[in-house]
Amino acid sequence: MEEKNPTIERLADQIDWYDIASKKSKTLYKALKFTSITAAAFVPLTAGIGSIQLLTGCLGVIIVLLEGIQHLNQYHQNWISYRTTCESLKHEKYLFLAGAGPYPSVNDPQVLLAERIEYLVSGEHSKWISEQEKSEKIPEKSK
């Protein structure tokens, strides 16, 4: 029975997580944007044909809500960031498995792989925290 390799397991786990998170963020971003654009396209139509003002107003409310949800949850930024990290992790995996890149020149390639995996993942976490803090800041009023 072959012993499990914790570094390779960690790498596979992180690739899977970032792949799924990226796809989820992409789907949510596109769904919100498609619905928002569709609602926006109907605003001039409903206003132009003289439909009830309530319908036109509801479309405006829907647009504001969808854009607000997108802004709060940062689906577009997360999609791109998660996809970038996923592809970087895959890149490291292929270099390691091929014995290419920096791996053949070190004494213990697995240690280097573990360090590079954690560097990519912790860098992603740091970016995520920074983006969350940036999006939650309220601009100060000019004195």
Order of helices and strands: HHHH
User: What's the domain count?
Assistant: 1
Give the helix proportion (percent range).
over 70%
Low-confidence stretches: none
Give Rg in angstroms.
23 Å
Sheet/helix structural class: mainly alpha
Distance between the termini: 71 Å
**Beta-strand share of residues:** under 5%
Number of helices: 4
Largest sheet: none
* Average pLDDT for all residues: 89
- Count every beta strand, where a strand is a DSSP E run of 2 or more residues: 0
- Shape call: elongated
Structural features:
143 residues
Can you walk through the features of this model?
The protein is an all-alpha fold and 143 residues long. The protein has one domain. It has four helices and no strands. Helix 1 runs antiparallel to helix 3 and helix 1 runs parallel beside helix 4.
Summarize the structure.
With 143 residues, this protein is mostly helical. The protein has helices at 6-48, 53-73, 75-98, 109-136. The chain contains four helices and no strands.
Lay out the secondary structure.
Blueprint: H1 6-48, H2 53-73, H3 75-98, H4 109-136
Helix pairs in contact: 1-2, 1-3, 1-4, 3-4
